[in-house]
Each structure stands twice: as C-alpha cells, then as structure tokens.
Amino acid sequence: MCHENEFREVENFRGTEKNKYGNQSLSKYYLKYDIVKEFSKKLPNGYVFQSFAKQIDLKFSENVADLLASFGDDPVTGNRTAASPAELEVANFLYQTFKDIGLTNVTKDPFKTWGWEFRGASLTISDDLGEPHMITLGGYATEIMAENKQIQLVDGGKGTLAELEALGDISDKFVLIAFNIREDFWISYPAYQAHLKKAAGVIAATSYKEPQPDILISQDSSIDYHIPILSISLQDHEHLQTLIQQSPHAKITATLNAHSKVQPNMTSYNIWGDIKGKTKDVIYLMAHYDGYYHSYFDDASGVATILGIAKAIIKSGYQPQKTIRIIAHGAEEWGIPNKDFDWGRGAYSQIFKRHPEWATNGFAVINIDGNFPVAGTKAFKIRTNYELLQFVKNAVAPLADYKNYRYDVLAPTYILLEDFSYQLAGIPAIQATDDLNNSLYYKAFYHSSKDSKSLGLDLETFKLNHLIYGSLIYQLDALLIKPLDISHCLNQLRQTLPQETCSDVFIAQVDELCELATHLTTMISVVNEDYLFYTKQRNLEQIQVMHHVFANLNLSLYRLFLMLQQQFVRLNWNQEIVFAHEVSLHNIYHLEAALRALEAREPIAQVLSDYLYPIDGNELVPTFDKDVYDFFTKRYVYGNQNTFGYRLIEHKNQDLYEVIRSLLQKVNDPQPDIESELDTLRSALNTQNRNFTEAINREQLGLVTVSNQIKGILSMFNIVPDSVVTMQ
After folding, report:
1. What is the pLDDT of residue 539?
2. Count of other CB atoms within 10 angstroms of residue 727
3. How many Å apart are CA 90 and CA 92, to the nearest integer?
C-alpha cells in the first residue's frame, strides 16, 4: 500500500535496436542531427513546427520557473500549498501571465478544497554550553500551532509497533522517527500508530534511495489532519537521537514553534486559457503550480514549459485546427485529509465538477509533471494509455538518435499524476514523467527542500521538453481522428488471462474482439493518413468533405475510450493500474505458492516474505498493530469517497493478520503445528477464486458492450461518399 511504486514497465520504446549509423563516430553525427528538422518531418507542413521552434523563448520560461519557485508562505522553506496565501499569489500571477502571452478566454476557475498553510516550524534545544540551538523543520498537511511550547521528545526508531511499545508510555510526547520511504513504508503508518499510542505527534526524518543528510522531505500524510507530523533532516535527527540516548531518562525537552494550519472549505484556483482552434476538439496541455518547499522542478518547471510552448505557438502565428487549452491546476500535491487519494484535487474538481463537459471534446491530454530538467539527468520516460502507445512511440521516434538522451515510452500511465482524473473522464493522456526509483531527482530530492534551482537547471533538456511536447501538440493537431489503438488494450487484457482457468468461450470472445479492434485501428489510421495527405496537398475540398463525413467519429471514440476506463481500469494494492481480475489472480498465485511451501515445510520466514506479505494490504502485518491494519485496509476499499480512486478497488482486503502473526511466532519452531494456518489459507484461496470468477464475469459483460460500440463505430466508415478518395 505504498504511494510510490515503480509500475510495471512494458513496451520499452528503444528496446535493443542498434543505432542505424553503425559504428561510425556518433559525435560527428550528433553535430549534424537537427531535432527540429526531424520533428518537422512528422508533419504534413513541417515549416509550421520550425516556426514554432524559432519562437521558443527559453529565458521567458526560465523566468517563469524562477518566479513561481520564489513564492512561499514560509520565508525559510517556501511552500505554496493548497489554498494558501502563497498559492493564491501564484494563481493571480499566472492569470495575468496567461493574458500577457496572448491566450484567450483566460479564466481563474475556483474550486473548493481543504487548505493548508505552513508558515514554518522549528525546534530549539540547548547545546553543550547551554546556548540555544535552533533546528528548522518542514511540514506535512497536518494541524499544529505552537508558540514556544515545551515538548518532550523520545526516540521511536522507525516508528514500528515493537519500537513504540518498547518506549512504554509515550502519551503527550513527540516521537522522533527515521525511515527510508522506498525500503520501509509511508509516513501515514508510523504516524497513525504513534497516534493510537497517544503520542503528541511525530517528527520524521525520511529518505529515498540515496539519503541526503541536510534536506527536509515532506509527503501527503493521508491521515487525519489532527495528527501532527513535522519533518526533520537526517543530520538533525541524528543529533537529537544522540542527545536522547545520552539522557538518563531517554528523553529530552525542546522548545517547539510551528504554524501549520489546515482548514476545510477553502478556495483554490485552476487557471486556463485557449489558443482557439477551428473545430470543437480540444488538446489539453497542463501542469500544476502548487508545491512542497520551493518545488522548482516539481512543478514550477512544468508550468514554465506549458507557458513557454503556448507563447511560442502564439508568436509563430500558427492557427490550430483544434483548440489548445493551457491549464495550471492548484492543489495537486494535497487537498483533502484522511484519504488514500488525497492528491490531484484541482484536476479532479475541474473535470468532474467544474467542467465535466470538457471530456466530450477532449482529443488528448499532455501533462508536464516530469522529465525534470535537473543537471546530469539524460534518461526520461513518457507514459501514456495503451490506446495511444503506438502513436506516441512514432511521434517521438526522432529522440532515439538524439545525443546521449534516452526516452522510454511506456504504458499504462501513473495514477500519481493529476491527468489520471481526465483519463477516467474519457480523455487519453500523455505524461512527461521519470523513473520513480532510479532518476537522479527521485533517488534523492523528490518533495524536498533541495528541489530548487541550486540542483542545476539543464537548459538543453529544458528546451528539449518544449520541443518534444510542442511537437506532440502539432502532430495531434494535424490529425482528423483520435489515433487510438483499442486493440492494444484488449491484447493486454488477453495476455493477463490464464488459459487454464478461463473458459474457451471467453478466450475466443477476447480474441475475436482483439481482431475487431485491430480492424478499427486500421480504419482510423487510413483516414488519418488520407487527411494528412490532403493537408500536405492543400486540397481544401477533400479536407472539408472529410470533416463533414467524420464529424461525429471523435465523439464516438470518446464514448468508447470512456467505456474502456469504466469497465477495465482498476487499481491493485500498490496503486497500479490493472485489470480487475489481476488483483485476485495475483492473490491466488501467492496463496497457492504459500500452501505448497508450507506443506513442504519450507522456512516460514521465507514463505511470509515471498508469498503472504504481498497479498493485498498484508505488508503492514509484521510492522503495525491490528488497529492500524484495519484502518488502512478498510479505508482503501470503502473510505475514499469524493476522490478519483473511489470504487477502483473492487474487493475488500484479504485479511491474513492473525494467520501471519501466528506464523511469525512459529518461525524458529523446528516442527511447528501449522494445520490451523493452512486451513485459514485454504479458505482465503477459495475467497480469491470466487473474486476472480466475479471479476471475469463482469469483464465478459463489459466486452460485449465494448464490442457493440466498436461495431457501431466501424459502421461509420462505410458511409464515405465517392468524393473522398482513399489513398493506397
């Protein structure tokens, strides 16, 4: 149940292909390689993209990022958080900037959210000479207001149940904890465990794959805002830990000052404006302007990029076919307490509450919340839906030969980015993102006080982002029909179905539907190729006829894509996009393996780590108590109303808490009696088999609906008048 898992990485765009220039010196080739020219070749009239590229004003974009990062409620740590004064200042600045660069219909859409204002926090302790020593703290979206408050501080290790119980009574004490987010768990679990033990709050030093001693890190807390959490650096944590260990009573006194205010029913804003097109279709280009600390890269650089792209399009004089809508969302990082899906509030409110009508004409969404131009980073990822994967691969193919950069194009998307709400509403998405485990930024500096320009802004990457996502806009705009490949999604479904379990009839149904979807993909490609041909020939008569003939096709494709989201997009317990049956199938595999291993008297500890902990929310069992376990596993399924993730988890948690705890007590027993545990696991296996059958039955019904929609769309291709000539 962690928030930041590296998702299944499929469809590596570069694969193992050899460079087409053989063994010759690449340095000479790179000097000659013109990425603008190569992207221009992707368009029927490439000169329009070249004009765009010439108008990119990188200094303007850099200035925007600089200014956004300078706003903050706390003079020391920054922070422009949901509905805070700093976030409002940024909203007003962006509203004016949208107008200044020439966008039309500029709007500052208000939406209701929980607000969080962090004006700073500090601990003051006495050093060896009795002199006061102040430690700067970071914040979480929790409530804590303190002015020179004397607190007692104890060392809680990582904050696990065993460590907190070893402390005895921690009532009204602050617990100092430290853990690695990637290797251990999310902040919400130890904080809630400490709360149940009546602690006054926690002060946490967290780290990633490459721990940094002197930075503050904050995340969405995902628990009740009345449970105080503050952030501390690793080096300050180590200093306090040493003082506590040296104290005769294993605790120290410190003076706390903090201003972290959380309030309901506050107002944030989504800022948007248009480059008006000729048709009713809309391409969305988005980023978010709120952020932890100074958040220069996440996501001031993204807002700067979308504005830089918009400015260059307008200055080039390009008249798009489709409206290009630029939107900067507020309250992306956090906007509601006590939910598993507490981020992306601006986007969720915009597409589901403020402007649900936007989805109907949405051609595609491009979200710049990644590809962070941090100096020293050359490997990036672009994620998209299965249905857009082939289009995006082809669109960015010129990147395969560009210098020493690497761009992997992958599907499916991350739910961690705000465009996921737009996807659920029926608009396919393209995400600028990164490797959440191995990129320089995510290995060390994500959501930290070091996310500032001091990390180093790589201007070449910054400009490349303008070119890549500008090119995607131009290539999308050049098409008549959404370039969806429905067969890719259905083939992914087919690959996840176990042949030995599913009926032959169901497998045949899926195979038939894959063929039908492939036919639809071919027809879409043919029409788009014809349209590009006539555009290149400037055959206005044929272009007009095609617009008339296929006027309702994108609306039908919207309904089909929406249906696919509703029928097949579900989440597992690692917040990954999966098909519904995959969750129970995963559990069946692990339960069957666990039963075989235990019956064969394999080591219990290995069985637990390999097979039982990975089932649903059971990774919490060895570390936290039953109350923590029940709270989070029940909430994940039933408690996320008014968020984008509600009802995306179909079945309740497979509760293995007692059986795992029982097995833990028998780990060192040479001949343990485990018959009771085996019976419990067999019962769990029966439950998962029922869940699997239910999921397959629902998917089978969904396939019938999808099949009917595809057949209806294919019938639209049979009404092409003689005046439209299909190119061979």
Report:
1. 95
2. 10
3. 5
Compute the residue count for the chain: 728
State the amino acid at position 192 in one-letter form.
Y
Backbone φ, ψ for residue 6 (5° rounding): -75, 120
Closest CA to 227 of 337, 314, 152: 337
Q: Is 599 helix (H, G, I), strand (E, B) or coil?
A: helix
Neighbour count for residue 43 (Cβ, 10 Å): 19
Give me the torsion for CA of 333, 338, 339, 345, rounded to 10°: -40
Three-state DSSP at 492 gives helix
Give residue 437's Cα distance to chain centre: 13
183 — phi, psi (to 5°)?
Answer: -95, -25
Give the tokens for residue 244: 């506590």
- 300, 260 contact by CB (below 8 A): no
Give CA–CA dist 472/477, Å, rounded.
8
Could you tell me the two tokens for 391? 């289009």
116 membership: H or E segment, kind and range = strand 104-126
Tell whether the torsion through CA atoms of 124, 127, 131 and 136 is positive or negative.
Answer: negative
pLDDT of 32: 53
* Bridge-based pairing state of the strands 132-139 and 229-231: antiparallel
DSSP letter assigned to residue 129? T
- What does pTM read for this prediction? 0.93
CATH architecture of 117-263: 3-Layer(bba) Sandwich (3.50)
- Classify the C-alpha dihedral 696-702-707-708 as positive or negative: positive
d(CA 201, CA 195): 7
Report phi then psi at 348, rounded to 5. -60, -45
Q: Which helix (H) or strand (E) holds 675?
A: helix 675-715
Q: What are the average pLDDT values for consecutive 10-residue runs of the chain, which has 728 residues? A: 39 34 36 82 95 98 98 97 98 99 98 98 87 95 98 98 98 98 97 98 97 96 97 98 94 97 98 98 99 97 99 98 99 98 98 98 98 95 98 96 92 97 98 92 96 97 98 98 97 93 90 95 96 95 94 96 97 97 98 98 97 98 98 98 96 98 96 96 98 96 94 80 40
Q: Is 264 exposed, middle or buried (0-12, 13-18, 19+ CB in 10 A)?
A: exposed
Half-sphere exposure of 386 (CA within 13 A, CB side): 19
Instruction: Specify burial of residue 519 (Cβ count, 10 A radius: 0-12, 13-18, 19+).
Output: middle
Q: How far apart are CA 604 and CA 117, in angstroms?
A: 48
Give kind and range of the element (H or E) at residue 206.
strand 201-207
Selection from 541, 464, 543 nearest residue 36 by Cα? 464
81 CB-contact burial (10 Å; exposed 0-12 / middle 13-18 / buried 19+): buried
Q: Would you say the C-alpha torsion 394, 396, 402, 408 has a positive or negative sign?
A: negative
CATH number of 29-115+265-477: 3.40.630.10
Q: What span, in angstroms and rounded, lies between the C-alpha atoms of 629 and 317?
A: 58
How is the chain split into domains, by residue range? 29-115+265-477, 117-263, 482-728
Q: Token digits for 9? A: 């990485």
One-letter identity of residue 486: I
The 3 state secondary structure assigned to 533-565 is HHHHHCCHHHHHHHHHHCCCHHHHHHHHHHHHH
What SS3 state is found at 273?
strand
| CA gap 145, 143 in Å, rounded | 7
